[in-house]
Design goal:
Helix content of chain B: 40-55%
GO molecular function, one term (chain A): electron transfer activity
Organism (chain A): Dictyobacter arantiisoli
Strand content of chain A: 15-25%
Protein name (chain A): Electron transfer flavoprotein small subunit
Number of helices of chain B: 13
Strand order of the largest sheet of chain B: 4-5-9-8
Domain Electron transfer flavoprotein alpha/beta-subunit N-terminal (chain A): 24-214
Shape of chain A: globular
CATH architecture of chain A: 3-Layer(aba) Sandwich
Distance between the termini of chain A: 40 Å
Largest sheet of chain A: 9 strands, mixed
Strand order of the largest sheet of chain A: 9-8-7-10-6-1-4-5-11
Largest sheet of chain B: 4 strands, antiparallel
Number of strands of chain A: 11
Order of helices and strands of chain A: EEEHEHEHEHEEEEHEHHH
InterPro entries (chain A): ETF_a/b_N, ETF_b, ETF_beta_N, Rossmann-like_a/b/a_fold
CATH class of chain A: Alpha Beta
Structural class of chain A: alpha/beta
Helix content of chain A: 25-40%
Number of helices of chain A: 8
Oligomer: heterodimer
Distance between the termini of chain B: 54 Å
Number of strands of chain B: 11
Largest interface: A-B, 19 and 22 residues
Chain lengths: 261, 431
C-alpha cells in the first residue's frame, strides 16, 4: 500500500512569539526558528504505526514550502518515513489553502496514493482547509478527526472524535484521513534514524514537474485574502463553584452543558 | 566624555545604531564604524539570547536534529520529574528504556547496535541532557564512554558481541571502577589487585564513587595485575563481588553513586580486556567522558542563564524589572559571555575530535574551563533569583550542587590545570 503523510514547516510554537505583519496581515516566518509542525509529528507517528501494522507498505512524506523546509522533511525521514517529496518553487510564495491543496493533490495524483494522512490543521495558519481540498481535487473521500484507524482490505475504518464520544465510519480507498489532535503521541526520531535519514531519498518537485502554471498559485493565484487582523479577546474569568452542599450537582450540570457527561 | 554620554538617548547607548548620524552619534564615529558605514542597512538581526554567536549556523542539519530531539526529550520527559528525584535522592530508572530507544546509550560508537554519531552530535546530546540534569548526563557518560567504550576499544570480539548490543538496548547497565578510597587523582597507585590463578583472575580491593554502581549488571574494573594495570569485566552476582550505595550526598542526587567491593572475587581470564595494558586504558576512557562533560556543562550553564534572564525580566523591585539594574545586567552579561565562549570551545573541540586531531590537553582545557564557568554561572544565577534560587521550584541550586561534583570528577579542576600547565611549560608539577 502506498501511504502519504502531508507535513508542514512552521514557526516553532515552543520558542517563537507569533508576529503578524501589519502590511501583508500574514504570519512572519523569517527570523524565527522553523520546525516540523508538532501536530504533524503526531500524524507521522500515526502513519508509521499504521504502515508497520499493514505491512508491505511505503510511507512518503509530502511537503510544500521553501527549500529550507527540507529540514522538516529530514525530520520526518529521521522519524521513520521511507522517503520524502518537497514541492518548492519561487512562484508558490503566498499560496493560500486552495492553491496548497491543488499543488499537493497534483503531486499525490502523479505519485498514486492509496492513503493520505493529514493533521486536522496546521499549528501556524489553522485554516484546516487543506485536507478537504486535497480530497476534493482528487475526488476521494475524506475521513476526519480519526483517533483510531484500521485497514481491512480496500477499506479504511476509523473511530472519529465527535463532541459526545466517537463514531465508527468506513470508506473505500483511496482516502484522505485527518488525525484528531492528541490521539497519537509523537515518537522521537532515534539517533540511528537521524544518521540514516541522509541515506533516504528526498525528491524536489517544481510546478513544471506537476504541470501547474505559476499564475494559478502563490500570491497571483490566491482566492483568499486576509481582510484584517486584530487582538484576540481576553479570556473571560472562569466560574468558581463554592461548596454550599450542592457543588457536586453544579459541577455535574456544568459538565452536562458541554456534553462531557 | 561622561557628560556627553549622558546626553545620548538610551537606545543609542545600548547599541541600536542607525544611519541617522546625529550630532551625538558622530562623537562615536572613531570607535564604532557601523554608524555611517554603507553596510549599516544590512545589519544582521539580533541573535537569540542563548546563541549570541549564531553557533546554530555552524551546525549541520543532522547535528541540529540530534540536538533538538534530545532537547525535546529532556523538556518533555526529564525536566518534569527530575526535581522530585533529586529531592528523594533517586535515579529515574524508568527512563532507561526510553534513553535506549532514542539510541543514546553508546551513541558515539559504531556497530554492535550503536548509533555511530559524530563527536559533535555526541557533544550536543550531552549538552542537552545536562541542561536537564548532570545526573542524567552522568548516567549516559558512564554507560557509553566509561563502560561501553573500553569494551568497544579494548575488548575481544566475543566480549563486544556479548555486551555491547545489550548495553545499547539498556538491558545491561555498566559502571566503571577506577577511583579507590585512597587513590583518586593518583589512580596509577591503585591498590585493587588481580592475581592470575590458572585460567582465572582473583580480584581484591575496593572502588569508590562509582556512578551507576548499584544498578550495574557489569563493572569495568581496573586493577594491578602482574603485568601492569588491566581492565576486567565483572558481572553482578559473581561471588566475592558486592556493591553498596553511597547516601547522604548533597550533589548528583538523581544519580546512583556506589562502592564496589572485591573479596577474592574469581573471574575467568576471558573477562580481561585483552587490548590494553597500563594507565592508557582508563585514561582513554576518561578522555571520552571528559569530552562529553566539556559539552554537558554548557547545557547546565545555559539552563541557569535562561532561568536567571527570564526571572530578572519579570521580577519587579523598586518599581522596575531587576533586569534594568546595572549590577544584574553585569551578572547576566558575564553569564552570556562565558556561555558563548564555552560553546565555541566545545564545538571546536568536537570538530578536532571528528577530524581525528584531538589532543588530550585540549579536552582538559575545555573540561576545566567549561565546568568552572558553568559553576560560576549557576552561583550568579542563584544570586539573581534571590531566595527563590535555593528551592527546587527552579533548577538553579540543583545544577549548582551537581556542578560541584562535575568540577571534581573525571579529573579535578586542579589536575586539569596541571595537565595544561605541563603541556605548555614542559614541566610536570605532579612529581
Amino acid at each position: 500500500m502506498k501511504m502519504f503523510v502531508c507535513i508542514k514547516q512552521v514557526p516553532d510554537p515552543n520558542t517563537a512569539i507569533s508576529k503578524l505583519d501589519p502590511a501583508t496581515k500574514r504570519l512572519v516566518r523569517s527570523g524565527v526558528s522553523l520546525v516540523l509542525d508538532p501536530g504533524d509529528e503526531s500524524t507521522i507517528s500515526a502513519a508509521i504505526k499504521l504502515r508497520d501494522k499493514v505491512g508491505n507498505s511505503e510511507l512518503v512524506a509530502l511537503s510544500m514550502g521553501p527549500a529550507s523546509a527540507q529540514e522538516a522533511t529530514r525530520r520526518a525521514l529521521a522519524m521513520g518515513v521511507d522517503r520524502a517529496i518537497l514541492i518548492t518553487d519561487p512562484a508558490l510564495a503566498g499560496s493560500d489553502a486552495f492553491s496548497t491543496a491543488q499543488v499537493l493533490a497534483a503531486a499525490l495524483k502523479k505519485e498514486g496514493a492509496d492513503l493520505i494522512f493529514c493533521s486536522t490543521e496546521s499549528t501556524d495558519g489553522y485554516t484546516g482547509m487543506v485536507p478537504g481540498g486535497i480530497a476534493e481535487f482528487l475526488g476521494i473521500p475524506q475521513l476526519t478527526f480519526a483517533r483510531e484507524i484500521t485497514i481491512e482490505g480496500q477499506k479504511a475504518i476509523i473511530k472519529r472524535v465527535i463532541p459526545k464520544g466517537y463514531q465508527t465510519i468506513e470508506s473505500t480507498l483511496p482516502a484522505v484521513i485527518t488525525i484528531a489532535s492528541g490521539s497519537y503521541e509523537a515518537i522521537y526520531p532515534t539517533m540511528k534514524g537521524i544518521m540514516g535519514a541522509k541515506k533516504k531519498t528526498l525528491t524536489q518537485m517544481s510546478l513544471a514537474d506537476l504541470g501547474i502554471a505559476a499564475t494559478q498559485v502563490g500570491e497571483a493565484g490566491a482566492h483568499e485574502r486576509v481582510l484584517s487582523i486584530g487582538k484576540a479577546e481576553a479570556r473571560a474569568a472562569g466560574q468558581i463553584i463554592k461548596d454550599d452542599g450542592n457543588a457536586a450537582q453544579q459541577i455535574a450540570e456544568f459538565l452536562q452543558r458541554y456534553q462531557l457527561l | 566624555m561622561q557628560s556627553r554620554l549622558k546626553s545620548l538617548p538610551p537606545a543609542r547607548v545600548a547599541g541600536n545604531f542607525s544611519n541617522e548620524a546625529s550630532q551625538n552619534t558622530r562623537l562615536w564615529r572613531g570607535s564604532i564604524a557601523m554608524v555611517e558605514s554603507p553596510h549599516a542597512a544590512h545589519q544582521a538581526q539580533m541573535p537569540v539570547v542563548t546563541d549570541l554567536y549564531n553557533i546554530d549556523m555552524m551546525l549541520s542539519d543532522e547535528e541540529r536534529m540530534v540536538r533538538d530531539t534530545v532537547r525535546k526529550f529532556v523538556r518533555e520527559r526529564i525536566s518534569p520529574i527530575i526535581g522530585e528525584h533529586f529531592e528523594a535522592g533517586t535515579f529515574p530508572r524508568q527512563l532507561i528504556p526510553e534513553l535506549a530507544a532514542l539510541g543514546l546509550l553508546g551513541m558515539h560508537l559504531d556497530g554492535y547496535g550503536c548509533a555511530g554519531l559524530s563527536a559533535v552530535c555526541y557533544g550536543l546530546a550531552c549538552q542537552e541532557l545536562e541542561a536537564g540534569d548532570s545526573g542524567i548526563r552522568s548516567f549516559i557518560s558512564v554507560q557509553g564512554s566509561l563502560a561501553m567504550f573500553p569494551i568497544f576499544a579494548f575488548g575481544s570480539e566475543e566480549q563486544k558481541q556479548l555486551w555491547l548490543p545489550r548495553m545499547a538496548r539498556g538491558e545491561a547497565i555498566g559502571c566503571f571502577g577506577l577511583t579507590e578510597p585512597d587513590t583518586g587523582s593518583d589512580a596509577a597507585h591503585m591498590r585493587t589487585s588481580a592475581r592470575r590463578d590458572g585460567s582465572s583472575y582473583i580480584l581484591n580491593g575496593s572502588k569508590m564513587w562509582i556512578t551507576n554502581g548499584g544498578i550495574a549488571d557489569l563493572a569495568v574494573v581496573w586493577a594491578q595485575a602482574e603485568d601492569g594495570i588491566r581492565g576486567f569485566i565483572v558481572e553482578r552476582g559473581t561471588p566475592g563481588f558486592s556493591t553498596s550505595d553511597i547516601h547522604r550526598k548533597l550533589s548528583l542526587r538523581a544519580s546512583i553513586t556506589s562502592e564496589l567491593h572485591f573479596d577474592d572475587c574469581r573471574i575467568p581470564a576471558t573477562q580481561m580486556l585483552p587490548g590494553v595494558r597500563g594507565m592508557r586504558g582508563p585514561l582513554s576512557c576518561l578522555d571520552e567522558a571528559r569530552y562529553g562533560i566539556a559539552w554537558g556543562s554548557t547545557g547546565a550553564a545555559r539552563a541557569c542563564y535562561e532561568v536567571a534572564l527570564e526571572y530578572a525580566k519579570s521580577r519587579i523591585q523598586f518599581e522596575r524589572p531587576i533586569a534594568g539594574f546595572q549590577l544584574v545586567q553585569q551578572k547576566l552579561v558575564g553569564m552570556a559571555t562565558e556561555l558563548v565562549k564555552a560553546q565555541l570551545l566545545s564545538l571546536q573541540l568536537g570538530r578536532l575530535k571528528d577530524s581525528g586531531h584531538i589532543h588530550p590537553v585540549q579536552i582538559s582545557l575545555a573540561k576545566r574551563n567549561n565546568v568552572r564557568e558553568a559553576l560560576h554561572t549557576a552561583r550568579e544565577a542563584r544570586s539573581i533569583l534571590g531566595a527563590n534560587g535555593i528551592t527546587l521550584e527552579y533548577p538553579i541550586s540543583r545544577h549548582m550542587n551537581n556542578l560541584e561534583s562535575v568540577f571534581t570528577y573525571e579529573g579535578t579542576d586542579d589536575i586539569h590545570t596541571l595537565i595544561v600547565g605541563q603541556a605548555i611549560t614542559g614541566e610536570s608539577a605532579f612529581s
